[in-house]
Design brief:
Blueprint lengths: L2 E5 L3 H13 L3 E5 L2 H10 L4 E5 L1 E2 L2 E2 H10 L6 E5 L4 H9 L4 E4 L4 H13 L11 E2 L6 H7 L6 H13 L6 E4 L6 H10 L8 E5 L8 H6 L16 H4 L4 E5 L6 H13 L1 E2 L8 E2 L3 E6 L3 H6 L5 H7 L2 E4 L10 H16 L5 E2 L1 H9 L5 H15 L4 E2 L6 H4 L1 H4 L3 H5 L1 H14 L4 H8 L3 H10 L4
Parallel strand pairs: 1-2, 1-3, 3-6, 6-7, 9-14, 9-15, 10-11, 11-14, 16-17
Antiparallel strand pairs: 4-5, 8-10, 12-13
Helix pairs in contact: 14-16, 20-21, 21-22
The structure holds adenosine-5'-triphosphate.
Adenosine-5'-triphosphate binds next to helix 8 and helix 16.
Keywords: ATP-binding, DNA-binding, Nucleotide-binding, Phosphoprotein, Transcription, Transcription regulation, Two-component regulatory system
InterPro entries: AAA+_ATPase (IPR003593), AAA_lid_NorR (IPR058031), CheY-like_superfamily (IPR011006), Homeodomain-like_sf (IPR009057), HTH_Fis (IPR002197), P-loop_NTPase (IPR027417), Sig_transdc_resp-reg_receiver (IPR001789), Sigma_54_int (IPR002078)
GO molecular function: ATP binding; sequence-specific DNA binding
Length: about 450
């Protein structure tokens, strides 16, 4: 019987959910706060943590981080309200398995839970990494990967086909949510290593103090907290592909270690005297300008060239307008399946809005907008009234991007956009048609607090 830790401070709701899950043959422990949950996690081996995002003594994300930093590799599913969906998406980037928006229907809960329990994990790794099972075949992968029909997508497809069968290191660039990880998986699945592991690691989520142990592993007792031997990501990916996301976030010291491991093709777990030979194909991704980081001395040039034997830029959604409907249909079909709905399509108004919106969050944003709209729609067709305000009002508010590109009034535009949205950086970035990251960089550049 699978054992679930449910963390929810709404007493009535949590009791109902507990009984519901028990009726479906799960064993459930209930906690109303994080403190108690952490105690329970130490005592018991759970198969799944199902937690509310907001709790009296903290949020689900800090709990998620605690779990990731511990030796457990338990899948974590978050419960959120609609307003928190963007936070939940951030949480997924930090390793949460999935999120589910309240109010949810019983079937949806069961599906999310069974998906999370099915997920393949290696029990020796403590950072949540996604691993494509070696048995996963290409036919399945191809249904998860929509190739697109726009010119930009065709070029992308061509590059993937060309580079996949080689052993070249690939640097994938592109804005957040464009599908860099999906492209990396696709390269792996089209490569000769497809039957070996694909290990995805978010370098931005690894605290620098434990990065060496994460990458190279450690021996029991080699430092305080090393209570067991641990295999690092390099060894876990042996024979297959190691995908390092947000590679620009590695510290200088970690860059040196990574370069050494790549050059020597062997790693030494912390506390071990033995080196382990590793045969990996490296794919990295970044949404930063790594060359700029090289110029500034923040990223090692030798490592940059080692990673960039071949580079692929994943286009923004806005630059693949011809694909938009194709992706919208794909995400609708996916949401229908997940939410057990049978919505047939979008109203004309919605499609027009989709075409004119700038999609700063790219495919991830499109997917989220459609999942939410699918849940809210009670008719056959998705109408404008279930779209988020920022999308519906985008045309009214938008600052023309050509204005923004004029360097001299950039600062003024940022200030006025921030004022207009009450200093909300996400909304300001959307208004300016730039990513949040770019906005943060510009705020720093112009010393705007
Ligand atoms: N070609 C595609 N076909 C189908 N779905 C896709 C495709 N590309 C991306 N997606 C979906 O879009 C979402 C974002 O993709 P992904 O996480 O790969 O983006 P990313 O560029 O790696 O994001 P980040 O920079 O924030 O890590 C995911 O839900 C993914 O499944």
């Amino acid at each position: 019987m699978k054992y679930i830790l449910l963390i929810e401070d709404d007493v009535t709701f949590s009791e109902m959910l507990k009984h519901f899950l028990e009726r479906h043959k799960y064993e459930v422990d209930l906690s109303y706060n994080i403190k108690n949950a952490l105690t329970l996690l130490k005592k018991q081996n759970y198969d799944l943590v199902f937690t509310d995002l907001r709790l009296p003594d903290g949020d689900g994300i800090s709990l998620l981080k605690e779990i990731k930093n511990s030796k457990n590799n338990i899948p974590v599913v978050l419960m959120t309200s609609y307003a928190e969906v963007s936070t939940a998406v951030q949480a997924m980037k930090q390793g949460a398995f999935d999120y589910i928006s309240k109010p949810f229907n019983p079937d949806e809960v069961l599906e999310v839970i069974s998906n999370a329990l099915d997920v393949k994990k290696t029990d020796t790794r403590d950072t949540i990494v996604s691993k494509i099972s070696s048995k996963k075949d290409n036919s399945h992968a191809s249904t998860d990967f929509v190739e697109g029909i726009s010119a930009a997508s065709k070029t992308l497809k061509e590059y993937i086909h060309l580079v996949a069968p080689t052993d070249m290191s690939v640097l994938i660039t592109g804005e957040s949510g464009t599908g860099k990880e999906v492209v990396a998986k696709n390269i792996h699945l089209k490569s000769l290593r497809k039957d070996k592991p694909f290990i995805a690691v978010d370098c931005g989520a690894i605290p620098k103090e434990i990065a060496s142990s994460e990458f190279f592993g450690h021996k029991k007792g080699s430092f305080t907290g090393a209570i067991d031997d641990k295999i690092g990501h390099f060894e876990a990916a042996n024979g297959g592909t190691l995908f390092l996301d947000e590679v620009g976030n590695l510290t200088y010291e970690n860059q040196v270690q990574l370069l050494r491991a790549l050059q020597e093709r062997k790693v030494k777990p912390i506390g071990s005297n033995d080196e382990v030979f590793v045969d990996i194909r490296l794919i990295t991704a970044t949404n930063e300008d790594l060359l700029h980081a090289v110029d500034k001395g923040d990223f090692r040039e030798d490592l940059y060239h080692r990673l960039n034997e071949f580079s692929i830029k994943v286009p923004n959604l806005k630059d693949r307008n011809d694909d938009l409907i194709l992706y919208a249909d794909f995400f609708l079909e996916k949401a229908n399946k997940q939410l057990k709905k049978s919505i047939v399509g979008f109203s004309k108004d919605v499609l027009t809005l989709f075409q004119s919106y700038n999609w700063p969050g790219n495919l991830r944003e499109l997917s989220n907008v459609i999942k939410r709209a699918t849940l809210l729609t009670q008719t056959d067709v998705i109408h404008k009234n279930v779209l988020p305000d920022e999308l519906v009002n985008s045309n009214k508010n938008s600052v023309p991007s050509n204005k923004f590109s004029a360097k001299k009034n950039e600062k003024e535009l940022i200030i006025s956009a921030l004022q207009e949205v009450g200093n909300n950086k996400t909304k300001a970035a959307e208004l300016l048609h730039i990513t949040r990251k770019t906005l943060y960089n510009k705020i720093k550049e112009y010393s705007l607090s």
